[in-house]
Amino acid sequence: GLSALAGWLGMAVATDANVRTTQAADKEGLAKALRVAFTGGAVMGFTVVGLGLFGLSLFFYLMTINRDEDERLALVYAMDSLAGFGFGASSIALFARVAGGIYTKAADVGADLVGKVEMDIPEDDPRNPAVIADNVGDNVGDVAGMGADLFESFVGSIIAAAALANGDPTLVMLPFWVAGAGIFASVAGYFAVGTKDGASQHQLLFALHKGTIVSGILVLVFVAIIISQSFSDGSTIVFGTDENGMPMPVTDTEKLGWKIFSCVVIGLFAGILIGQATEYFTSYSYWPTRSITEAGVTGPATVIIQGIGIGMISCVAPVIILVATIFGCNALAGGYGIALSAVGMLSTLGVTLATDAYGPIADNAGGIAEMAELEERVRETTDALDALGNTTAATGKGFAIGSAVLTSLSLLTAFKLKAEVDVVDITDPVVLASVLFGAMLPFLFAALTMLSVQKAAGAIIIEVRRQFATIEGLREGTADADSDKCVAISTQSSVEEMILPGVYAVMAPFVIGILIGPKALTGMLGGAIASGMMLAIMMANAGGAWDNSKKYIEIEGACGGKGTDTHKACVVGDTVGDPFKDTSGPALNILIKLMSMISLVIAPIMAGWGDWEMWYYGLIPIAICVIATIVVWKCYWSDTQDISAPIEKTVK
């Protein structure tokens, strides 16, 4: 409920901020427009972290009162209950991110293919019936969807860290304190954002980076104070277990405290480095995106090839950063240290999410300027903000993927502890087969969402073509388009098309965990996290690079500027990249976190199970998947539409 509320509030404010950003760009210039758009995004950022921490703290308190057990056991049982809170956040994230992604990209692809390619009218032209649905979709997918995604990561990282604290009060509360310190630091970072009129893309990027830098420095100061007070000499900390599985008190608590602080530092810097690596591969200020534009000289096929190659090679840097983070934090403080690194990475989420949610506000401001037929200088200002928004959105997606991997890994460690899985041998055929099954799931999930976008976009294309053919004067601008019809199609399609991916994501842990056992489920989660991370990074970065390769031509006039064959080739690349970066890629974050959270919720039930011990109960989730597949196929997929069929003109 809190995740849905945060998304609703973020969309409501973003909708108002769209218009105000356009007005600021018209009346007051670039600097003021940047400030207005960033402020609109900040509402989403601070709503997510505020409601997330409030909900967790309140629920945690309610789960600890009137407990008969001793303090340590009471905290352990309370954390078991908090996994249900995380499952609720994951469920809303699945709906907002997957359905929102299908909604926005179906409208976007349909609007672009008919409007820009077939009818040769400008982007966001009011004559295009799908433009309103496209702009609404930006708020649905990129504001509410990203907010729900990072809300899930934010609360999931805190739950995982507290679950791995083994009931020690200081270690349980530390992730809550770090998250709270991050909120105060993010408020200070918000006030540091600003630029001047006429700023270049580099200067605009630095204007947003100032907020991240200030909040990052302040959160480290705040956490250092917390550590120094909580882990002073004389305090008793229970960290880890002995060879008999009993809680083991730590003698040198101060040393342990600074090791944990180092994990927070590592996580925070890992998030910044992943963002910088993503920016390098997706901003047209650098070679990778410019190389895609240059590849457009020889046609759209080479744009696609170059973009996929850039997306694949962009996986290297984030993987190395995350591997180093995991190794370093594990050496310092084990699984708890890895979980705290995820909390550290997300500690400045207030300002980081503000930077990301700023993007769709700037994009819609440009659409409003086009539809209102404002002066060209206004569109130039909003285009500069939009190009910056594409880069920050890509950076935000990289950050979301990195935090999702660390959060999922921490949840996997907590699951292993709660399910009493001692050793997972990769050479065990049961484990290896489960790893392969888990590695397949992200590809299935991504395929379903890509196919859903294509199917929904096809319905939009048919409707837009019909209106251009049947509404007299629409092409000339003397008649109004029926935008409500396209909005209705996108809404219905997004809800219908998320059913199957949602069922598979929720049922997969039940199928493997109950049919085979907790050891196999551990392997499945490991395989899904590994392949899901690679596929998500590749798709998000390739899509962002394709998008900005087009912006490089439109804003900087590269390769002859707008209207050239190179520009048209890059428009094709951008259209392919839309579902890559805004639907399938981000949806994979939800998949790996949702499966990890569900596994943690059901872990106490499976504690101590052997392989195939309860296999007959595993037939139930399999039957649910089969029935859902048949129903969805019969109701939504079997009746295909021919989008190539000509539409007769009926209005003379």
Structural notes for this entry:
- By secondary structure, this protein is mainly alpha-helical.
- The protein is built from 18 helices and two strands.
- It has helices spanning 2-27, 30-64, 71-118, 131-163, 169-191, 201-230, 253-282, 287-295, 300-313, 316-345, 349-371, 376-418, 429-470, 483-497, 499-515, 518-556, 565-606, 615-637; strands at 237-241, 247-250.
- A two-stranded antiparallel ribbon has the order 1-2.
- Strand 1 and strand 2 (247-250) form a beta hairpin.
- Helix 4 (131-163) runs parallel beside helix 12 and helix 6 (201-230) packs antiparallel against helix 7.
- The longest helix has 48 residues, at 71-118.
- The protein is globular and about 75 Å long.
SSE inventory with pairings:
Layout lengths: L1 H26 L2 H35 L6 H48 L12 H33 L5 H23 L9 H30 L6 E5 L5 E4 L2 H30 L4 H9 L4 H14 L2 H30 L3 H23 L4 H43 L10 H42 L12 H15 L1 H17 L2 H39 L8 H42 L8 H23 L15
Antiparallel strand pairs: 1-2
Measured on Cα atoms, how large is the radius of gyration?
25 Å
- Alpha plus pi helix count: 18
Helical residue percent band: over 70%
The number of E-state strands comes to: 2
Q: What structural category characterises the helix and strand content?
A: mainly alpha
Biggest sheet architecture: 2 strands, antiparallel
Outline type: globular
Give the N-terminus to C-terminus distance in angstroms.
51 Å
Contiguous uncertain segments of 5+ residues? none
- The average pLDDT is 84
Query: Main sheet: which strands, in order across?
Result: 1-2
Beta-strand proportion: under 5%
The helix/strand order is: HHHHHHEEHHHHHHHHHHHH
